[in-house]
Amino acid sequence: MIDNAVAALADYAVRTGLIEETDRVWAVNRLLDALDKKTYEAPETVEARPLEAILGDLLDYAVAQGILEDGVTSRDLFDAELMGRLTPRPSQVIRTFEEKYARSPREATDWYYRFSQDTDYIRRYRIARDRKWVTPTSYGDLDITINLSKPEKDPRAIAAAKAAPQGGYPKCQLCRENEGYAGRMDHPARQNHRVIPITIDGQPWFLQYSPYVYYNEHCIALNSRHVPMKIDRSAFRKLLDFVKRFPHYFVGSNADLPIVGGSILSHDHFQGGRYTFAMEKAPVERAVSFPGYADVEAGIVKWPMSVLRLRCADDGRLVDLADRVLTAWRGYTDADAFVFAETDGEPHNTITPIARMREGLYELDLVLRNNLTTPEYPLGLYHPHPELHHIKKENIGLIEVMGLAVLPARLKGELAELADALVQGADLRGSETLAKHADWAEELKARYTFTAENVTDILQSEVGAVFAQVLEHAGVYKCTPEGRAAFQRFIDSVR
After folding, report:
1. What span, in angstroms and rounded, lies between the C-alpha atoms of 263 and 267?
2. What's the mean pLDDT when you consider all of the chain?
3. How far apart are CA 422 and CA 449, in angstroms?
4. Which residues, given as ranges, of the chain have pLDDT below 70?
5. pLDDT in the model for residue 153
6. Are 51 and 5 spatial neighbours (Cβ–Cβ below 8 Å)?
7. Confidence at residue 263, expressed as pLDDT on a 0 to 100 scale
8. To which H or E segment does residue 114 belong?
9. d(CA 47, CA 223)
10. The domain containing residue 287 runs over which residues?
11. How far apart are CA 133 and CA 142, in angstroms?
């Protein structure tokens, strides 16, 4: 049976173009070596099966033979090793990408995205488990995702990682040194990972895809050096250079301060892809202007967060104006609006920028962010407030800013339990799981009659409504006359 699985994986590699037919015998022997198997009998026929099933058989065999421990982390390390033995060398991948890019940037990324899936660097079968839906709101259709594709570490992996020596190589999960890295219990294997060198703003960067693809063609552009993220003039220049090179992609950066930044601030990087978010579809609510920039279209976007949209045919002019806005915002204080540039020497103001091409023009969205904390809101004033933490407590980063909620995996089980309780009329405070949702659920009970047929749709819709509130909390200037007046005061201060 194991010979069948080995043959099936080699056949998969030929079928997807990872190797050529003339590589088949070599590939089989590479797999046998990983499995410490000294004999092999090629089957007469090979059944085409899903990759997950083939790898499952090989991993079960490796566990039975004592080659690896039976745990999620150990299995992930080993299946990356198996696929890495079938993944072309970086030089070959780069050459193919560049050949296709010379014909069309879209052809190049189409191929590279499919390649990243075929190597199992992007695990299609795990991505398919994510729960996804769309919720209409006054701000547009918000995307909601419960992330189930990133496995949680099992206790044995956590214990092993704690006991393992700390090497500091690679420095982080975004470093170029991850390419081909075998991994360890506290660091994912990347033997089946390949990155593409690109130049933006005259500097060496790399292009790759996120292994968890929260949206279509979710890519990452990363600095070749392990340097901290920083929003500055150069960041705007790099973002616009990126969309000039890949005009079918958007690209954006997380903010560079804690609370309002992303999960990795230690390595300069952007996220992009081929997807249209709700924020991009949101219209300009009111046009504004800046002295000396009559050629730049500017306006406040109808969005729960504070977004200034700039459009121009000349990308250099956008960089100049964006830099002026950033400089002004870094030092801006408006006590009446409870906006403070700093307290006790700690800076609070920064920007989440997003760039794209639209209708032949460069477009740059500048989202004003502030990470001020207060005794009442120790996790951040412009952050989801405590009454929403039962749904979303984590930082509001780039992806959420644009209108896609990445919600924790715990919600899958919690919402299922809550649904049963609502249908059955059970005690909403009878368990720890239900208790955290009880106030929200009791408010829902006052508005709905729950049945087995409608409870899931109602809860999904209301989770989406909570996410809209999350974005409202994260907005520095609220969508009110007072908030818009305060936003205009800031715009008037830009010189």
Report:
1. 10
2. 95
3. 9
4. 151-167
5. 53
6. no
7. 76
8. helix 105-118
9. 43
10. 127-406+477-493
11. 9
How does DSSP assign 264-331, residue by residue?
--SS-EEEEES---HHHHSPEEEEE--TT-TTSEEEEESSSS-EEEEEES-HHHHHHHHHHHHHHHHT
Residues 398 and 419 in one domain: no
**Within a domain: residue 97?**
no
Contact 173, 186 (CB under 8 A): no
Question: Cα-flanking dihedrals φ and ψ of residue 241, to 5°?
Answer: -60, -40
- Boundary of a domain, candidates 67, 97, 116: 67
- The amino acid at residue 388 is L
Question: Do 379 and 414 belong together in one domain?
Answer: no
For 332-387, the DSSP string reads --BGGGTB-SEETTEE-EEEEEEEEEETTEEEEEEEEEE----SS-TT-TTS--GG
Q: In terms of domains, do 371 and 461 share one?
A: no
Q: Do 258 and 187 have their domain in common? A: yes
Q: What is the pLDDT of residue 168?
A: 85
pLDDT score for 152: 59
Q: pTM higher than 0.90, yes or no?
A: yes
SS3 content of the chain, % helix, strand, coil (to 5): 40, 20, 40
Mark whether 205 and 232 lie in a shared domain.
Answer: yes
d(C-alpha 213, C-alpha 120), whole Å: 13
What's the pLDDT at 264? 85
Confidence at residue 167, expressed as pLDDT on a 0 to 100 scale:
64
